[in-house]
Write the structure tokens for this entry.
Amino acid sequence: MYLGKPSFSLSFGLEEAKNLVAEALKKKNWHEFKQSDLTLSYVPYYIFFYDAFFEEKKEDGERKISETQRGRLALNAVTAEIDEEVSEELEGAEFTRKSPNVPIEVDKPSMNQKEAEKLAQVKTAEFLESHTRNVLITQMKMIYYPMWIIGIEVAEGNYELEVSGTNGQVFGEEEIPERKKGLMEITGEALYELQSPSAWGKYAVGTGKTIAGSGLIRRIITNRWFWTIVLIIIIALIWLWPGSAPVKP
């Protein structure tokens, strides 16, 4: 599809976006979830240059220009907010006017360019902590930013995640609650880790510290070799028990 306006080139495709979402959910212990079909959304941005100057008062009370600054920013044409990250991606970015062969949505801007110029002056002054009279906006044009949109269904409910089509950053994952691991899952992970002898001491010492005691009992339960033997026996019993071998998490 021909977009009409230039867009950032897509660096993360459909399958890559799915994998990034799966990785984000795995970090929150969600291994079973449903995905809706991904949609590629093209978000409009007004890109512009600004020239700003800063003043200071002289001893006689008059003002003089103390510093000038030139830069480039991106104004989200839907939310009317300055997006510094998109601005930074402009450096060395590649652009195209064609979309890939996948379902897409093209968001409509909530303002025209004249309105955007006025708003950009105010937003830039706020961004620079300056006054609007000290900011000049030039060379404004519209571009699109590709963003994958995907609906996620987990046991706790339905959520929507966004994945940047240019840098792979996942947005919205903080809204998804972390799944609590079950006892068998925790046990399985611990047993898998204990296949490495270097982990035995850590579990033995950690377990000993959580049990109150004194005298001979205290010396026994805090003895590393005692707990190593106990753990070896437990692991051996579990491995010998039919169908109980732990699965790698």
Notes: The chain has seven helices and nine strands. Residues 210-214, 243-249 have pLDDT under 50 and may be disordered.
